[in-house]
Structure formats: C-alpha cells, structure tokens
Design a protein that fits this description.
It is a single chain. The protein has helices at about 20-35, 50-60, 90-100, 110-115, 130-135, 140-155, 165-180, 210-225, 230-245; strands at about 15-20, 35-45, 65-70, 105, 160, 185-190, 250-255, 270-280, 280-290. It is an alpha/beta fold. The strands form two sheets. Strands 1-4-3-2-5-6 form a six-stranded parallel β-sheet, with helices on both faces. It has a three-stranded antiparallel β-sheet with strand order 7-8-9, with helices on one face. Helix 8 (about 210-225) runs antiparallel to helix 9 (about 230-245). The longest helix has 19 residues, at about 210-225. It is globular and about 60 Å long. The termini are far apart. The structure holds pantoate. Pantoate binds near residues 147 and 165.
Amino acid sequence: MTKPLTKDDYTPGGVTLHHDPDRLRRVTRALRAAGRNIALVPTMGALHEGHRKLIREAHVLQNTVVVVSIFVNPTQFGPNEDFERYPRTLEADVEVCREERVGLVFAPGVEDMYPAGGQVTVAPGPLGEQLEGATRPGHFAGVLTVVAKLLNIVQPNYALFGEKDYQQLTLIRRMVRDLNLPVDVVGVPTVREADGLALSSRNRYLSEDERAAATALSAALVAGAHVSGQGADAVLKAARDTLAAVPEVDLDYLELRAPDLGPAPENGDGRLLVAARVGTTRLIDNAPVLLGAGDE
Ligand code: PAF
C-alpha cells in the first residue's frame, strides 16, 4: 500500500531534497497514485541555463511534479578524466531548483547508488563504441546504467535530456525502446551563449583565451549548415576549414550522420557532430543539417 506523504517527503510549492533511493521511490509512487505526472531531469549538478531550460520544458508537460537528480556518476568517467575535479555545487543547485519550482531534488551518494558495487550493466551496443565512445571507452555503459537506475528509482512518466549530448540522447532513446522502459524521452535543444558556445558545466574549466577559441566548434557547425544544400562533402569541408583556422582547437572528430546516428543520407536530415580538446578541456557540440535541399 502507498504510504501517505508527509511534509518531510514533499511540500507542494517547495523543494524537498532526498538522498535515499527507496524513500524517493515511495514519494514519486505516492504522487503518481495521487494523479500527478512525474518528469525527471537527470543531471550531474553544476546547474546552468541549459538545465534551467530542461526544467522549464518539464513544467510545460501536463500536471507534472519535476524531479531533478544530481549525481556525478563515477562509472561514466574514464581513469584519466575529470571525475575528481568535476564541479560539485549542491547548495547552489538546490537554490536553482527552488527558483525553477522543482518539487524534488534527488542527490544520492555513490554508496546510495552502488551499494553492492554494481556488476550488472547496460551494454550500449555498436553505437556506444563510436564518436564519443571511441575516445571514452565504457562511457556510455556508465551513462545508460545510471540512467536506467534513475528511471527505476524515480519511475517518471517523462525524462528530459539536452540535445547538446546528442549521442547520449540517441542511446537513451534506443535503450528505452530496446528494453521496453515505460517512459517518454523528451529531447531539448541546446542552449547557447550569445557567441554560439554551447552551455556545458565543463566550460568553467576554460581560460579566457580558450573560451574564445572554443567558439570555433559552434562556428564550424554554422559554417557546415550554411552550405548543406551542396551536400555532405561541402558541409564537412566548410566545418573543417573553420576549425583548422583556430590552432588552439585540437580536433577529435567531425562527423556527419543521420539523425539516429546511422550513415548520413545524401539528401534530407543529417546531424553534424564535433568533438575537440581546447587546452585540457574536451568539448562537444552538434547541430541539425538539411542535406542537398538547395543550391546555396
Ligand atoms: O548528461 C549528464 O549530465 C549525465 O550523463 C547524466 C545523463 C545525468 C547521467 O549521469
């Protein structure tokens, strides 16, 4: 039987912080039993405008209580990546959630999420080894496993993810379909600074010069999209030339794919994806392109 909620579990109009997965599951179950929809916004914290946009989109969905999870998931970081130095700003994040009328914040510790170590994982399949997965082995197994766990804990009607991590979004959609998970995945367009830089918690690692150089990524996507009517080769050349003009940008990959990240079509919708290192910071970005649709 669903236990009645107390003010310590959930306060309408306020934000309640939870750490314990079982308790949170009881709260979201009771809210669903009371006729509310649950919208989950999974994050690793250090919340910025991009996360605010996800939360705002969650509020647009009907009759929802918004749950934001904040968990820097160790299993998606490689041994030489930034797990230790990844920003952890829980107090400020809860304040952002309060401002954005989030109902529940779920901020578990590593021991709450992986009490037994976590030997069983979700295998992302071939797409998990391409693009980001080629440079970050094991990354997407870590992401999909923690997202599956969060979905099982929160049991939301909706889960919202940014298009900024386009391969992540694509693999999560695929996992939900392949494993018959009962949730609607909602993708939300990337939020950008005025100069085009895609918002990311990792932007704070950039020095002033690196920050300026980093705009080459979004500029390359714009340059590529601008000649999309001329086909794939023209798109890739324009984007590559833009990146090559900025020596601080150490390109990892620039690829044109279909929207589901299969091979790009000759005509029609495509997705242009870029990853590069600027200083010690690895950045990614992507944009839609309409291939062969005109003769610009
Ligand atoms: O995009 C992120 O912030 C993370 O990869 C996610 C989806 C919260 C899983 O840890």
